Amino acid sequence: MSKTPETPLDVAAAPSDAEVTGSGLASKVLQAGDGDKNPGPRDTVEVHYSGWMVDGKLFDSSVARGETTSFPLNQVIPGWTEGLQLMVVGEKRRFWIPAGLAYGEKPSRPGAPSGNLTFDVELFSIEAAPEAPETPADLTAPEGAEKSDSGLASQLLEEGEGGARPGPSDVVAAHFTGWLEDGSLLESTVMNGKPAQFKLDQVTIKGWVEGLQLMTKGEKRRFWIPAALGFGENPPPGAPQGNLIFDFQLLDFKEMPKAPEPIPAPDDVAAAPSDSVATDSGLASRVLSGGTGSNHPSETDEVLVHYTGWTTDGKMFDSSVARGEPISFPLNGVIKGWTEGVQLMVEGEKRRFWIPGNLAYGETPTRPGAPSGTLVFDVELIKIGK
């Protein structure tokens, strides 16, 4: 049975025999490990941990919950990103993390502890992150590339299964890596370890829409996409400029199933009502029905939810309720409004969120098919954890 960890005697400040790095992070080995490798900055680690404020208050503990947690090191506070890279499997270490490497003196994340923090961490396993794909030698289309009337150029890298190709409104699943014309890495599902899935007629990059229809299942192909078929000559803020290079592997495609019946929009979809509660970030919410749990998820927890989303004009754009199937995801892998908002909830609770554009997909989303501006979500938190 799990129990509450004891507060360390040196919780208030690092002792004189602690190691201190250039950033100000202090640590002390509590138990030597049996591994010989340190995790890298993008690796996923499995750990047990307990965290205290300098006054000795325990604010979070996987040990108390009786379940280890896993996360990529580039998705946690800087003190953890730096500190875990000092450890080997089997090691236990105490960290004294200054506020600047934690959540700050005045955290913007609801429920986050302020000031300097002390953590005891035990490292159980390391899962290496995929290596960054090699930059192509041919950043401009070679002489032998196939070219279409639109200006799209492509070259077959690996044969597929042959046969059928996606239609213009099919849903495709694919791995891709993209580069700017100077060779800078733009984005890679290969590095993330999760393929992308999207509906072709909702993609804003015309070169993707045209190019993927040339491919068969299993095929790998390189595309040289002119700016006019990318994000345009005058792209929206944050979008890449100029010509783009993409390597695609088409994993699967299918005809889009019939759209579910829309769920009517709430009466207050246009704006948060006066009885909603707003956070410093601008996220507003209102509890629709109370939950039965008492624990709140952390930003690295996986949650199971039912949800429906509307734009402020009342148009439903997505709903697990309409599909009849809840969805699970890690809270640090979704839009900021969800990461912040679901942490306010307990299991069984239903809550309505009014999420401003800067905490959602932005005013001019770069993600294919994403809704713009302020969004409204009804969320039911079914379960915390896998």
Defining key terms:
Chitinase A, domain 3; seven-stranded antiparallel β-sheet; 21 strands; 6 helices; 3 domains; mainly beta; 386 residues
List the helices and strands and how they pair.
Elements: E1 19-20, E2 26-31, E3 44-53, E4 58-61, H1 62-65, E5 69-72, H2 78-84, E6 92-97, E7 117-127, E8 146-147, E9 153-158, E10 171-180, E11 185-188, H3 189-192, E12 196-199, H4 206-212, E13 220-225, E14 244-254, E15 277-278, E16 284-289, E17 302-311, E18 316-319, H5 320-323, E19 327-330, H6 336-342, E20 350-355, E21 375-384
Antiparallel strand pairs: 1-2, 2-6, 3-4, 3-5, 3-7, 6-7, 8-9, 9-13, 10-11, 10-12, 10-14, 13-14, 15-16, 16-20, 17-18, 17-19, 17-21, 20-21
Question: How many strands in all?
Answer: 21
Using the 3D structure, state the CATH architecture of the largest domain. Answer: Roll
- Give the CATH topology of the largest domain: Chitinase A, domain 3
Proportion of strand residues? 25-35%
Number of helices: 6
Helix content: under 10%
| Mean residue pLDDT | 92
User: What sort of overall outline do the alpha carbons produce when their principal axes are compared?
Assistant: globular
Radius of gyration: 24 Å
Measured between the Cα atoms of the first and last residue, the distance is 19 Å
